[in-house]
Amino acid sequence: MDFYNPNEKIRLIRKQLGINQSLLEDVNMTRAFISMMESGKRRISRRSSELLARKFNSIAKEMSININLDDEYFYRVPEEDARFYCENELSKDKISHEELNEIIEVAKTYQLRDILINIYKANGERYFAEADYMNAFTNFSNSLGKCKEINENSLQPYIYNAMGVCKIRRNEDEEAVFYFSQALWYAKEQENDLYFIKASYNLALGYSKIKEYEKCLEVIENNIVGKDIDEESEDLLKARILKANTYLRIGKKEEVLREYLIIINTLKETDIDTLSMIYNNIAEYHYKNEQFEESLKYIDRAQKLRSRESISIVLDTKGKIFLKQGLYNESIMILELAVSFAEEYKQFAVLFEIYKDLIKVYEFINDLERIKEAAQMLLDTLDKNNIDKGRTYALYKLIEISTTEGNIEESLRLLHKLKPMLISE
């Protein structure tokens, strides 16, 4: 995209319309003055720009052409035009990655670093909405880099938090903890209460995922539950749910049910998804205590409320219950359905766990072919989406099968693929 100096714009548009300077004359603007502006001998003022824009718009309209020049068009230098263009494009409701990349190139050419912050951020948000978390992370990272260059600190809590969410959606939980910690630090520095709470919750979630449960509970207690937050706040609700889930994972049985009951009593009638999640977690609690009938009662309640996009975690719990009851065919059917939903909606955080549960059922019935098929499908999905977590497990299962089958060549091939992953760990 080309942008022109003010005097060049007069000449360019005049030639495009096929008119001479005399047609631009006005009581407040002589032909000689126009000639001097066009040749670059006189600077174009805001008032002159306004007169020129109106004159050109009027002439173009008579030709049934709409050029729609704004009053400051002839006053702006190329850098200002580039900024004007970028800001207008960014304000559009719908804008594609291709269009955003074009704007990025313009902003780079004219070194509009503050504009680049917002373009990369917008591109990251669009990729995130499309569940393309790798490209989303890259764009948020570029946005952060520009923030650092010009000491723009106000956006850094948001961007660090967004980068952390991208990592956690890709099961890169230890890296996520770093970005959430940074988001929390910047939010605290800037007294940004909104992102202090958001980053605190996400940091606690990250700690939970890497099994640092005491740190998870500490962040929840100190940064969220212990703060003066509205009892009906969604952030407080999410923190309480995570707290209850953490109690479940560390085996604090009495605290688990108490927390879940507190949460249920504070829910609004419209909190269908949250209620479904709680029912699923209570089902998980009863499952761990081998109270399978009670577990199924709550899982059925959860399944009735859960949306299609997030049903996979409920189905996973149900599949595990059926396995414990010895209902292998039913367990396989439910877990295969859970896999399909998790893959369709790119729920990578639960997909690996579902595959592990499905393979466990196949192991119970000693179906080597289906174990191999499931492990290969998991590996293919992880490779396709550039996700590391789960690859080691999938390769290990494939090596187990090939070794059992006496296929030494295949085992060696898979071991060669597994070796760099083990070294990096």
N→C terminal distance = 47 Å
Largest sheet: none
Oligomer: single chain
Mean pLDDT: 92
Distinct helical segment count: 21
Helical residue percent band? over 70%
Shape: elongated
Count every beta strand, where a strand is a DSSP E run of 2 or more residues. 0
Strand content: under 5%
Poorly predicted ranges = none
**What would you report as the Rg, rounded to the nearest angstrom?**
30 Å
Order of helices and strands: HHHHHHHHHHHHHHHHHHHHH
Structural class: mainly alpha
GO molecular function, one term: DNA binding
Organism: Clostridium folliculivorans
Domain HTH cro/C1-type: 10-63
Protein name: HTH cro/C1-type domain-containing protein
Walkthrough of the structure:
- InterPro entries: Cro/C1-type_HTH, Lambda_DNA-bd_dom_sf, TPR-like_helical_dom_sf, TPR_rpt.
- With 425 residues, the protein is mainly α.
- Among the domains are: 6-76, 434 Repressor (Amino-terminal Domain), CATH 1.10.260; 341-425.
- The protein is built from 21 helices and no strands.
- The longest helix has 17 residues, at 46-62.
- The mean pLDDT is 92.
